[in-house]
Amino acid sequence: MAQDKSLLPIGVFDSGLGGLTVLRHLRERFSHEDFVYLGDTARIPYGSKSPRTIQRYLAQNLAFLNHLSVKAVVVACNSASTQARFVESPVPLYEVIGPGALRASITTQNSRVGVVATRATVMSECYPKEIEKLKPSIEVFQQACPLLVPLVEEGWDDDPITNLVVYRYLSPLLAAGIDTLILGCTHYPILKKAFAKVLGGHVQMVDSAEAIGDQIERDFQLHKLPAKHDGRTGTFHLYTTDVSDTFEALARRILAPNPSAKLELAEI
Amino acid sequence: MAQDKSLLPIGVFDSGLGGLTVLRHLRERFSHEDFVYLGDTARIPYGSKSPRTIQRYLAQNLAFLNHLSVKAVVVACNSASTQARFVESPVPLYEVIGPGALRASITTQNSRVGVVATRATVMSECYPKEIEKLKPSIEVFQQACPLLVPLVEEGWDDDPITNLVVYRYLSPLLAAGIDTLILGCTHYPILKKAFAKVLGGHVQMVDSAEAIGDQIERDFQLHKLPAKHDGRTGTFHLYTTDVSDTFEALARRILAPNPSAKLELAEI
Questions:
Q1: Among candidates A97, A218, A79, which has minimal Cα distance to A149?
Q2: What is the 8-class DSSP label of residue B25?
């Protein structure tokens, strides 16, 4: 008897723990689904690595998730998403760039969109290219923000120093007159408050988690991806390639108030 | 005929490019020696990884350097140095903790020593333990500074935001009345100016590069390590596990005005 694919979990992959913002959103939205999360904490950050190295790591991480049997994999990491199309996968791969670009192109009123992301994501030009395909009249302004992930990991997400760093990174985008800002890294939703302070009320933020949720919901409706309908509340398991108290504390903070943030070691 | 060991290069290993501050100092001091540098830029930072993972990576990196034939290896990375004694090596291994602790214990007048380092180095308690062995009456005050490496890599080493971060990290150490500060990470010498602003004139900084230079000079004098005496000016080769324009720019900045900062890829 063939296995009922709908019962398999959805894999969520990230270079670290920032992708837990995506996991949290997907669990709220698709509460019957099971999830398996893999964070490559041993090799974080991907944002400063070359495309070739990111492809190699991504392939290894997908092999780990597929070995656990999943029905799809969400590549929550933007830097890894830029390389997703170069890597083979036996199950559908959801990357975050396309959905984020789509949402931004629908949101903007003045056709001026900003992107904040890691250096790798900015260098790949993935958001400008995607948006160009969707609506060539939109102008895209990018800003690499390598300090934001370490600031979140230091726990300074509500802090005057972080506000100063965010202000410096966003100033050129505000000067360019953007009305929409893509948060092009899974850690950044944790900094929404700091972003809002600098952006003011007239700039809309686009969060990858919500954008990818839209796409998965569409695929469930179109039966491209089999949804789980057994009435049971979904479970989740967290794997990371390195485990430490700092990582567990960060996982608890992102998944709060969910108490189950125990990390299991994945040796890749 | 047995190979003349004195002619072999000295290997210098670091988790990234910060160790180039050590390489630069060693080249200035031992100008006839050849050097081979390996920076594990694909897996940087080590500072947030677990001891087990650091040991695994260190063993792989030592194997790479030994394969190139070296007469000794300097483990410039503090986080890796904490694990050096758990890893086997066919050639002498020089780690930075012992020499730094020795220099600090000689420097301090009031027996109050501060240590700034990555989280892994602080957690390992390596500096307090080493200093305890040398002079138990010295009190050691530690501070983990996870944001300093990203700030250096962003190129903000002479910047008001960096001064604020340094001020926040050093304040508890100054309040504790230290008169000596160990720069317990190879990136930190690049921030000496920012440290000096916060520390004022009465706190001495201990730089790992100089401390390890002292130890190697002693071993040359004692013939524990064969020095090269062929009159030729030494060469150096740089290998990194990931190569990017950002890394090359950082290497050039640290090795300036030396123009030869070309990185070769080491696939580990």
A1: A79
A2: H
Of residues B50, B243, B244, nearest to A244 (C-beta): B50
pLDDT band at A268 (very low <50, low <70, confident <90, very high): confident
Q: What is the DSSP string of A54-82?
A: HHHHHHHHHHHHHHT--SEEEE--HHHHT
Asked if the model's pLDDT at residue B246 lies above 80, the reply is no
Count of all residues that appear for chain B in the document: 268
Tokens 């009345």 found at = B177
Residue B23 in tokens:
């390489």
Residues in A touching B164 (Cβ below 8 Å): 161, 164
* Neighbour order of strands in the sheet with A236-240: A93-95, A72-75, A10-14, A35-39, A236-240, A263-265
A81-116: pLDDT as tens digits: 989 989 999 999 999 999 999 999 999 999 999 999
Tell whether B56 is within 8 A of chain A (Cβ).
Answer: no
How many helices (H) and strands (E) in chain A?
A: 11, 10
Smallest Cα–Cα separation from B268: which of B239, B238, B241, B237?
B241
B134 touches chain A (CB under 8 A): no
* pLDDT at B268 exceeding the cut of 90: no
CATH class held by domain A5-95+211-265: alpha beta
CA B252, distance to chain mean position in Å, is: 18
Which of these CATH numbers, 3.40.50.150, 3.30.70.260, 3.40.50.1860, 3.50.90.10, describes B97-208? 3.40.50.1860
Coil, helix or strand at residue A206 = strand
Average the pLDDT over A241-250 and give the result.
84
**Per-residue pLDDT, B43:** 87
Could you tell me which residues come within 8 angstroms of residue A182 by beta carbon, excluding any fewer than 6 positions away?
A: A100, A101, A104, A113, A114, A115, A116, A117, A127, A206
CA-based radius of gyration for chain B: 18
Q: What is the pTM of this model?
A: 0.83
Which pLDDT tens digit goes with each residue over B1-55?
Answer: 457 899 999 999 999 899 999 999 999 999 999 999 999 998 888 877 888 899 9
Topology agreement, domain B5-95+211-265 and domain B97-208: yes
Cα B193 to Cα B122: distance, rounded to the nearest angstrom: 23
CB-nearest partner of B242 from A53, A119, A246: A53
Residue B241: pLDDT over 50:
yes
CB contact at 8 A, A108 and A180: yes
User: Looking at residue A259, what is its pLDDT?
Assistant: 67
Are residues A119 and B246, on separate chains, in Cβ contact within 8 Å? Answer: yes
Q: Which helix (H) or strand (E) holds A13?
A: strand A10-14
Cα dihedral across residues A80, A82, A88, A92: positive or negative:
positive
Domain ranges for chain B, please list them.
5-95+211-265, 97-208
Calculate mean pLDDT across residues B122-147: 96
> What ipTM, to 2 d.p.?
0.79
